[in-house]
């Protein structure tokens, strides 16, 4: 019997046992109630409780058992594990039937089980974060055992290509040794992020100010969803747009000025990424500007200043924490953006300040390191996790600061819907 | 500090001008953002439209002994180079499975070679002069023309552009999304119900809440790293399969569903809960019988939006190896598979201009699906959402 059939059989038997538990305990509860005894719960609730004690522990044991055995690296004797679980299910069935008594609070017991189940579901999000941290940190540590952390942080040459030679024990045979200096990658990432922000912040903020302060309600209602559509477009589509349409355009325009641009220049992905990020900034800024109390506006206008002066000197300073928070979230988004840069930015690590040259980013290097036909243990593959660790830390910090700023804004103006 | 009336009114004019300028500039920002969307969509439509058309040629195909051995012999020598290799290859098998064909000659429309296709669309000219003449003659006789491209919707990926289609990627997307939703919908709703209805206000609850907000902002590529290190390396889930892709995307979509479900649950007024408690319901009964049913439209809307987001995601899937070359789709969650955005990515990296057209065509299909999903979400919200 294959594992699949054993597993299916297990599920079927468990289902049948559950059904038996349900009918038997329901019948028993009904019998007890028919004798005139008042019970703490309805027959159905006793029945469901019996089902829970039959199936619950059995499923738990089989899942935990499989996990522990996997953790120890042993081959799982599926058959024995599932058989043991079925025995536990039988014991549960007997206990559940036994509990059909007038003094047992079946409903309260079910309530307790459900509460634990829901809490367990809520823990999955914590486990996810832990999973990301653990997986990244453990692999990154292995990388730092091979290459020094200091070189990684301060080195200016990223040349992982030769690492497969050293993995094959031929490290000193010709060619240069693999070098993992991440500064060019981060420089490229920050360059593209900077370009994106130079596009996104003026446009996003401008659109938000117009929608809140100047636009009639009708235009506001129509424009908001249109801008949101920009956020719903998949990033791979933006990538195609950047690579096929914008990059050649940038090269042509640079050519008009007598400049020489690479077809995988940093400007094209930066511009397109900026457009992608406009809705993030505009919708959050819109909410924030909208919740600046009207009394501030009216007070300012009553002093006789014009609308533009009011926006510049009263509304924007009041909303500043929220706007900064939106921009930080947008920066974190831009740093982690992958598809646009993979498709439109270069693959060559290049430490330069000229956005018309090609340069590569952290995310591109992660993808490049993991999609090659490298062994998982090689330094190049592991370097992806080291880069991922830095990316995680930077974006996490930005998010935390952003949450902190928006909380300050919320407390200052007692706004609840942000 | 004294200013004359003239000075002040001159200043005032300037100030009002400045105010108007700000209005126009911010309006310009909004209009340009919207204009970009128009430029973007029209660029994709212009690029992608030709992908829905394909050159076909009417030829006489002779099914006989010779073409059984040498499929190329089935058609006339002069039109041979104009016809897709993909038409000839399955010929012998077709004859074997259908012996009645043997010895007959049939006039049928067959798929033309990609070079013919590109030539007829006016994109590039890589045909030999002799072939071009033949083709011109065929076009004048009405035996070569652009027809609706059914191949694009019925086949998988191919190295021959004229045979490449989106079908296997679409099936892969469906399988992946099934896994994603099967995992993240129940867990997301359960988490939201716990946090909104059951959780005590303690440190642990706060940590979970902060954590969920952080997860929503973690770059998607890091979920790919998690999928690679934990699902593939540790649990041994098969690489490139919809199972590992779906599980990875499920973790990514989880915060979206939790956040929207919480909003939906919060919009249910407390009076409903109080009334249910008042007639003796337990907390779970209140949630199951009263709160969940009325907040279901909101939950579904949020889930559909999360689904649309997951459907367009590519980066984590590249990391777990879902950019595979899949000519034939298999309806299984453990076989290697690809998804629509990954297919677009693969085509975009092909240098051939015929594939550039496929890329944009794939994008149009993907965008159409996403627009449909989002419209469905909006419709659901407008139709069923109750305002209290």
Q: Order the strands across the largest sheet of chain A as they lie in space.
A: 1-2
Query: What is the C-level CATH assignment of the largest domain in chain B?
Result: Mainly Alpha
Overall body shape of chain A: flat
CATH superfamily of the largest domain in chain A: MetI-like
Main sheet overview of chain A = 2 strands, antiparallel
| Strand and helix order of chain B | HEHHHEHHEHHHHHHHHHH
Question: Based on CA inertia axes, which overall geometry of chain B fits?
Answer: extended
Mean pLDDT of chain A: 84
Largest interface: A-B, 89 and 88 residues
Q: What is the radius of gyration of chain B computed over CA atoms, rounded to a whole number of angstroms? A: 30 Å
Specify the structural class of chain B.
mainly alpha
State the CATH topology of the largest domain in chain B: MetI-like fold
Distance between the termini of chain A: 56 Å
Quick synopsis:
Chain A is mainly α.
Characteristic key phrases:
heterodimer, A: 418 residues, mainly alpha, MetI-like fold, 2 domains, two-stranded antiparallel ribbon, 2 strands, 76% helix, flat, B: mainly alpha, three-stranded antiparallel sheet, 3 strands, 66% helix, cell membrane (chain A), transmembrane helix (chain A)
